[in-house]
Every structure is written in structure tokens, then in C-alpha cells.
Amino acid sequence: MLTALGALWLLSCGSPPPTCDRTITWSAPGEDPVTTCARVATRDDERRRGLRGAPQLAPTEGLWLQYPVVSRACIGMEGMAQPLDVHFVGADGRVLRSACALSPDAEAVCQGGTQAVLERAPHPSCGAWRGSFLGEPTSSSGWLAAPSPVLPACDERGDATVDGLVMLDVVRHPDVPDATLRRILGGASRWWGERGLWLSLAGEPRTEPVAPVLTGLRREMKEMLLAEGLPWEGGTPEEQEAVRQKVVDYVTAPLKAELAARAVPYRKHTVVVVVLPEIGAPGTLAEALFERLRGLTFSPWLRDRVGPDERLLYDALELPERFVPVVFVGTEPLNELGPEIDVTLAHELGHALGLPHEASSLDLMADAVHRCEPGLSAVQAKQLMGYQRLGPDAR
């Protein structure tokens, strides 16, 4: 039997299921529902045999191939007597990929992050299934249902794609409304899903009283420095460096504690997303050092690609070599901007997977407010192949 570290080779053919173990209903907005009466194959021999050598499927018939582990699934058409629509389904019920009207001589089609595959008779709606959720509502379907694009597409943006799955462990402050959280998560889900990288939730978002992770009062800092014999202003270069380090340590102390609680121990496949009203406490030293942040990310795959100042911050936080990427999103700065909220989390997840900032304003990773919906370059897509250490095929 293949494990999660290997490919699941599925041989598809054209047989009407003798029984209806599962009824799958899907409908596009404004269209009549498409119902499939599917036999469910759960044993390894059933999945390998599939529908090979049997008569053609009726228009409403299909086969649901259920796998015990999430992995990379490949569908071949050897022995088929008719074309097939093939839908690759993730663990949360989302259709990750739809291969429509595959001919009997078609090459094998593969998709990572697959938990099940639906093979059915061809239908004109096939292409619209991708990205939708099948079956009963799940945590992911409720929170990651993608909203319509708010920003217009950037001209001449990159159109590269990737392939994979990332799990999100979401924590939100009690003051973050459901609608805001859905918009943040759904916007990132749609942006990355259109490029072949699917987001799934590890469970329902947890509500916790998360405090700002960057803080610091000037009065307290001044008293601390004077108590240690360091100047509040001026001083020698050595004293200035000592003051800078003291200020950074003081301002980032809550961040250090938050990362220690959420980034370790290391968990495969996972990015932690913390959504709170403000990342830095208003009116504190944090604003002077970091400005008002919409997003802030720490990732082991980003550490080697940041500048010297950011690297010093990583060192000050004493993060281990291997830790779970953590993304912080501040909703108040986002709400003041408007529709840019839809790509902020997508941008921060790019950091979580190792992408540094880019100069082009047409790029997702531009360190700027996006006034049009950016794209992904071929170079970035190649860099993202390293994220597979987070993906379902990770060794």
C-alpha cells in the first residue's frame, strides 16, 4: 500500500456503479444541480481496479475513490472506453482540480493534497467545480469560501502557478468579527487557489484574547535605561548600540513570548495565522520602530532571505532553526484601507512559504498597498517548490 509519501496511482475505466453508495450534488450559481450517484471504493484492490473494462457510465453515474491518507493522486485512462470528468478532492471536501472529458488515450493527471477522487460521466459544468466544496459544510468551507475579487487585475502581472496544499491553524481576537475573518481567509484562499496552492483549516478558528505583540512605553523604557546607566539620548556609538538592543528586546518581548507559544513545537503542513485588531499597541514605541503594521510574518524559509535588520530581529527572538511559520494580521489598519484586505493575507502567506519582498508593484510580494490584484512570477513559483517541505508530500 502506498503511504502519504508516495503517489496514489489510480487506474480509471468506464463502468456504471452497480450500487449508489453516495449521492453527490453540485450546482453553479443560477444553474440546475448536477447529481452523481457514485459507488464508493475504499479498499486498495477496489481503487486499483476502478471501473476498468466495464460498460460506459450513465450521465448521472460515477465512482468515488476514497483514500486513507492525503497524498499525490494520479489518474490514468488505461482501458477506458469513454471520456471521463475527474475531480480531485481534498480532505476538507474542496475540489482541488478538475480534469474534464479526459479521453481514453489521455496521459495520467496528478494532483497533490488529494483525499478522494470523483470519476463521473462528462458534464458541461466540469470546469466550474474547481475550488468549490462537496458534501456537508466543513470548517474550511465555512471560512475559506472565496469572495468575488474586489481589486481589478493588474496589467502584465505574472501568471505562474504552483501545486500543493497548506494547512492554516487560525487564532482570532474576540473583537474580530466573523465577516472580517471570512473576508481575510477567503481572499487569501481564492488568490492562492487560482494559482494551484490550496488552503485548508486545521480546525475551527479559535477565539483567544490575543494582546498586541509589539508594545513598549517610553517612560518605562527611559527608566530602565537610566537604571542601567545608559543614556536616553546621545552617548557613544557603543552606548547607542546597547540602547538599540535594549529597546528592541523591550518592544518585542510580547512577540517573543507569542512565537514561543505558537511556533514550537514544529508541525508539518501548517502555518499559524493570528488575526487581531492591532499588531503593535497604539501610542507605544512599537509604532516608532515598526510603523502601523497590516501584516507581520516569521518563517524559517524566510529567515535566510531577509535583510540584515530583519535578520537581527530573528536573532533577538531566539527562534529555533525549525519552527512553524506564524503570520500576524492587523484588522484595524486593513479596514481603513478597504479592499486591499483581500490580498494582505495572501502576501503574508507568501512570506510564510519563503518569498521575500519584490520591487514591482504588480507583484504579490511588493511592500506596498495593492491597488490592483497582483500576480505570481515564474521565478517565485520555482522558489515556492521549496515550500513542499510544508506540503502533503513532505518527507
Outline the secondary-structure elements.
Layout: E1 7-11, E2 22-26, E3 34-41, H1 44-49, E4 61-76, E5 84-89, E6 95-102, E7 109-120, H2 139-144, E8 164-172, H3 178-193, E9 197-201, E10 206-207, H4 218-227, H5 237-251, H6 253-262, E11 270-276, H7 285-290, E12 295-298, H8 308-317, E13 326-330, H9 331-337, H10 341-352, H11 378-384
Parallel strand pairs: 1-4, 3-4, 8-9, 8-10, 8-11, 11-13
Antiparallel strand pairs: 2-3, 4-7, 5-6, 5-7, 12-13
Helix pairs in contact: 3-10
Q: Would you mind describing this structure in some detail?
A:
The protein is α/β, with parallel strands linked by helices and 395 residues long. It is built from eleven helices and 13 strands. Strands 1, 2, 3, 4, 5, 6 and 7 form a seven-stranded mixed β-sheet that branches. Strands 8, 9, 10, 11, 12 and 13 form a six-stranded mixed β-sheet that branches. The chain is elongated.
**Which class of secondary structure composition applies to the elements?**
alpha/beta
Taking pLDDT < 50 over at least 5 consecutive residues as the criterion, the unreliable ranges are 1-18, 388-395
Under CATH, the topology of the largest domain can be stated as Collagenase (Catalytic Domain)
Question: Any idea what the CATH architecture of the largest domain is?
Answer: 3-Layer(aba) Sandwich
For this structure, what is the CATH homologous superfamily of the largest domain? Collagenase (Catalytic Domain)
The tally of helices reads 11
Kindly give the count of domains: 2
SSE string, helices as H and strands as E: EEEHEEEEHEHEEHHHEHEHEHHH
Give the % helix.
Answer: 25-40%
Anisotropy-based shape: elongated
